[in-house]
UniProtKB/TrEMBL annotation:
Any single biological process term in GO: L-tryptophan catabolic process
Keywords: Cytoplasm, Hydrolase, Nucleus, Tryptophan catabolism
Alphabetical list of Pfam families matching this protein: BD-FAE (PF20434)
Residues of the BD-FAE-like domain: 75-176
Protein's UniProt name: Kynurenine formamidase isoform X2
GO terms of molecular function: arylformamidase activity
Source organism of the structure: Octodon degus
Keyword Nucleus: yes
Gene3D superfamilies assigned: alpha/beta hydrolase (3.40.50.1820)
Extent of the signal sequence: none
InterPro entries per the UniProt record, alphabetical: AB_hydrolase_fold (IPR029058), BD-FAE-like_dom (IPR049492), GDXG_lipolytic_enzyme (IPR050300)
């Protein structure tokens, strides 16, 4: 807790906000410029569901693959046309503030990636109120270990998450892989519009179903734990792309920006090799055009 107290107030502008302003900052749909919030959320769901149906109708796939014993431990895996186990794997973790969304509306990246020779796994996890944050983090960890064990000859595992899913993916920097049965061949992170410090969310309506305490938020905020994260194998070259939408709220921009600062990101994969940093961090500002699906 000391580290959190040591954060200068200037770096935590949300602490000065009214409850109403904080609510707005953490309501992404209210920042969409092309449509009203309700229409934006509906469009997001409809496009995702349509793209998932299309992917399942057109791609070689295995659906509802169990990655554990829990009822919610399921993923859909989509394959390129080429039959091979030596494929790169792209794992996607959906958003929805840890309380909505599912794999069934999240396979929108499948066709562009599988046509380029990448296998895609769209992972389900138990959203609140069934699942707690700790349980979801555990599920995500196990889903990655499952892919590594099923496809030991993979050409890299790339994690991508959106919003709450980007948070879950970023928690993997803190994972104790040896405890989970082996180090996955992680080769890249794509973190889209993520949340890395959960404390501001505790007092918003997004916490009504999740019921996270300040303690839960602290434990599950990668922003505050990267300096003590377990060591990574030095040979894992692992670029991390942190992305945030151009029109998203100042708080969403701040979360991504602060997570990108060298003092926040895991020091170990940064170890220099051949005089070059292992880890390339960059903040990409997505334009509205590139967000179109
Ligand atoms: N109630 C939220 C919904 C939301 O944040 C959201 C919706 C779909 C996918 C991701 C989302 N945000 C973070 O996980 C909003 O008003 O935007």
């Amino acid at each position: 807790m000391d580290a959190r107290r040591a954060v200068p107030r200037a770096q935590a502008p949300w602490k000065e906000m009214s409850a109403e302003e904080l609510e707005k900052q953490y309501s992404p749909s209210r920042w969409v410029v092309r449509m009203e919030p309700e229409e934006a959320l509906r469009t997001f769901r409809e496009k995702g569901t349509e793209a998932t149906k299309n992917a399942q109708a057109t791609r070689r796939c295995q659906l509802y693959v169990p990655y554990g014993d829990g009822k919610g431990d399921r993923m859909d895996i989509y394959f390129p046309d080429t039959e091979s186990e030596a494929l790169p794997f792209f794992l996607f973790f959906h958003g929805g503030y840890w309380q909505s969304g599912s794999k069934d509306q999240s396979a929108f990246m499948v066709n562009p990636l599988t046509t380029r020779g990448v296998a895609v796994a769209v992972v389900d996890y138990d959203v609140a109120p069934k699942g707690t944050l700790d349980h979801m983090v555990d599920q995500v960890t196990r889903s990655i270990v499952f892919i590594q064990q099923q496809y030991p000859r993979n050409e890299g595992i790339y994690l991508c998450g959106h919003s709450a899913g980007a948070h879950l993916a970023s928690m993997m920097f803190l994972a104790n892989w040896t405890k989970h049965g082996g180090v996955p061949n992680l080769r890249g992170f794509f973190l889209v519009s993520g949340l890395y410090d959960l404390e501001p969310i505790v007092s918003t309506s997004n916490n009504a179903l999740l019921l996270m305490t300040l303690e839960d938020a602290w434990r599950n905020s990668p922003q505050w734990h990267l300096d003590t994260a377990p060591a990574w194998p030095a040979d894992l070259a692992c670029p991390i792309l942190v992305m945030v939408g151009e029109h998203e709220s100042p708080e969403f921009h701040r979360q991504s920006w602060e997570f990108c600062q060298p003092s926040s990101l895991p020091p170990r994969p940064c170890a220099e090799q051949d005089g070059k940093p292992h880890l390339k961090n960059c903040l990409i500002w997505i334009t509205l055009v590139s967000l179109r699906i």
